[in-house]
Amino acid sequence: MTFDLFDNLPEPDSRGGEHSEAIGPGAVVLRGFALSRALALRQAIEQVHAQAPFRHLVTPGGFRMSVAMTNCGTLGWVSDERGYRYDPNDPDSGRPWPAMPAVFVELAREAAAAAGYPGFVPDACLINRYTPGTRLSLHQDRNERDLHAPIVSVSLGLPAVFLFGGARRADRPARIRVAHGDIVVWGGPSRLFYHGIAPLADGDHPLLGTLRLNLTFRKAG
Ligand code: MD3
Ligand code: FE
User: Fold this and answer.
1) What burial letters (b/e) apply to 130-161, b meaning 16+ CB within 10 Å?
2) Per-residue pLDDT tens for 17-42?
3) Ligand nearest to the CA of 196
4) How does pLDDT run across 138-150, given as a tens digit for each residue?
5) Residue 185: which of 74, 107, 85 has the closest Cα?
6) Is residue 15 scored above 50 in pLDDT?
7) What span, in angstroms and rounded, lies between the C-alpha atoms of 76 and 96?
8) How far apart are CA 162 and CA 82, in angstroms?
9) 139: annotated binding-site residue?
């Protein structure tokens, strides 16, 4: 099943204000939803980074990921030669991941509710950092214990092209532009769909310079 139906939806500029669109079964884009909290989010990310710096993880196959990552919350997503998993401790420091900042928890809860998933309480937030050229190849997120809980993703800084496939790796992905302040909530069947990020284009964002930051909120444990 390929969901070509969704390929031709308009993707209005997020400067036009806040609104939502369905992009797949159970998946909703909330354009501009995080805009009013962007400064507070940047500051909170700085604080997480001070305790648990961004780093390039290695895949089980031995490849260094071009995305730099860190985590906050009671669990953090990690990858190494032994595989992918959630870990309560930062393997670089041996200490627990930093607590999830209140502004994160509240934003994730509100966004999930606005998309039709009330009661979402994330215990893990993976923070991805992209510079121009960075990409994230097509994958599924299935290390979380409860695959019924949605994932909430918040985009900050440079715009990106999100590749949104289907239940099978071979399903041709739709290309969806996500900009600063946009939130996507992935629930229902879309929760297990293949997805990725096309190589980031050059640019200079007024708040984040040459970076894109993405927060993904998960119920992992
Ligand atoms: C669709 N991150 O961290 S977020 C990831 O922009 C990840 O950094 C991308 O994919 C990023 O795993 C995309 C959007 C996202 C997250 C989880 C999903 C989309 C998803 C799970 C199922 C379907
Ligand atoms: Fe993912």
Assistant:
1) beeebbbeeeebebbeeeebbbbbbbbbbbbb
2) 689 999 999 999 999 999 999 999 99
3) 1
4) 999 999 999 999 9
5) 107
6) no
7) 9
8) 28
9) yes
* Domain at 20-218, CATH homologous superfamily: Alpha-ketoglutarate-dependent dioxygenase AlkB-like (2.60.120.590)
Q: Please provide the size of the chain in residues.
A: 221
Pocket flag, ligand 1, residue 151 (CB < 6 Å): yes
Residue 174 tokens, joined? 């739709």
| pTM > 0.85 | yes
**Which token pair is 8?**
């031709």
Q: CB–CB of 32/181 below 8 Å?
A: yes
Tokens 């627990």 belong to which residue?
96
Going from the Cα of 178 to the center of ligand 2, the distance in angstroms, rounded, reads 15
End-to-end CA distance of the chain: 30
Q: Give the Å distance between the CA of 163 and the centre of ligand 1.
A: 9
**Residue 195 counted as an annotated binding residue:** yes
